[in-house]
Amino acid sequence: MKFLSLAAGLLSLAHLAIAAPVGDVDPEVAASKRILELQAQYQQNIFGAIDNRTTGCTAQNIQRRKEWSTLPKPDQAAFIAAIHCLNTLPAKTPPTHAPGARFLYDDFIVTHIDQTPFVHASGLFLPFHRHLVHLFATALRTQCAYQGPLPYWDWTLSYTDPRKAAVFDGSEHSLSGNGAFIPGRNATEIALPGGFTWSIPPATGGGCVAHGPFAQGRFEVRLGPVGYEPKGPQGGLGYNPRCLTRDLSPAYSRGTSPTAVTKLVEGCGDLACFVHEMDMPGGVPGGVHASGHWQVGLDALDVFASPSDPVFWLHHAQIDRMWTMWQGLGLKERTYQVTGTATAANDPPSDNVTLESVMDFGILGDARTIRQASSSVDGEYCYVYE
Length: 386
Ligand SMILES: *[C@@H]1O[C@H](CO)[C@@H](O)[C@H](O)[C@H]1NC(C)=O
Ligand SMILES: *[C@@H]1O[C@H](CO)[C@@H](O)[C@H](O)[C@H]1NC(C)=O
Ligand SMILES: *[C@@H]1O[C@H](CO)[C@@H](O)[C@H](O)[C@H]1NC(C)=O
Ligand SMILES: [Cu+2]
Fold this sequence. Notes:
Layout: H1 2-19, H2 27-50, E1 63-67, H3 73-86, H4 104-119, H5 125-144, E2 151-152, E3 179-181, E4 188-192, E5 196-200, E6 206-209, H6 250-253, H7 258-267, H8 271-279, H9 287-294, H10 311-328, H11 331-334, E7 358-359, E8 368-369, E9 383-385
Parallel strand pairs: 1-2, 1-9
Antiparallel strand pairs: 3-6, 4-5, 7-8
Helix pairs in contact: 1-7, 2-7, 2-10, 3-5, 5-10, 7-8, 7-10, 9-10
The structure holds 2-acetamido-2-deoxy-beta-D-glucopyranose (NAG) (3 copies) and copper (II) ion.
């Protein structure tokens, strides 16, 4: 691991030297441009692979996932309405397992809580979350008649301050904005996979989300917290109704800068580097995955129950976009790579994963192997990021 991170560091230094020539080119501006080029190359490779197909996933039927701000306004409204809809249909989770699960939306949180010890900081992280996002997208469509593209949140666009993100502008066409500012709060000590804790200092909010579709009174969080105090009853599976809270943090949004993305997507030649760079760049917790959660704050900080905040789905679509782009820049060699073990931070120790390693989705659906979740166009998935 040490050797890998050193190698990754050297690679990324080499990259910076090329991307920031003598002069005053802002490396973040250069990296933003580079991401567009990488995105175009990835798309070209994907369409090159499926162009001649007449069955399965074809250039005609492929679903296009879009950045929130480019989603047409009626689709934004329909997406928000579909999330509210999932919060009115009855849960399938038996009350004996999770007495706090009342609605279909909660089923997703329960599976995420139950699987957290296996699917974070492990070889199952990327494939598990890809399939979870797919199941969520499928539920929006089949249970709640959402017809539009699945949105993602490109946090590089607002890396200087998440309060500038379209997804958080607080309007009826956003996922609501910041939590109300509460002065004098303490840091939140969060439990990370593998028995680590991490201290998240207070930022610009801290209270209930006050405006928009998920404001207090219009949206309820019921499960958790599991990953910080005060914890919810019954290991976070009990009934703990409360408002959605956020604490948007410009300190942590720096972790999702354009250069963080080019380092990850362009700087890594194998999946071991990619996963390490995504979660522990330089051996320190952080990276674009954690920084996406930490810049939102509070409910989103809970490694177990973070799907409570609807932005979870857009963040994880963006994480999946990173993996999909990386795979798409080397489809043949990269699509079916695996790395890591099947437990968080390998605690307790477990075997290295293989393509046949199985992931459990609880009440949401049948188990899947890593192989089944590896390609965005060869198996049951058929989507491209625009
Ligand atoms: C698709 O078909 C064209 C025309 O027949 C051919 O030139 C090209 O090599 C094919 N591409 C793939 C990926 O099979
Ligand atoms: C902050 O933490 C201290 C020490 O644990 C505690 O005494 C204090 O009440 C806390 N303040 C708030 C606002 O929770
Ligand atoms: C698991 O993978 C690591 C990293 O590739 C390797 O060093 C180790 O030998 C593997 N363990 C087993 C039991 O195969
Ligand atoms: Cu997760």
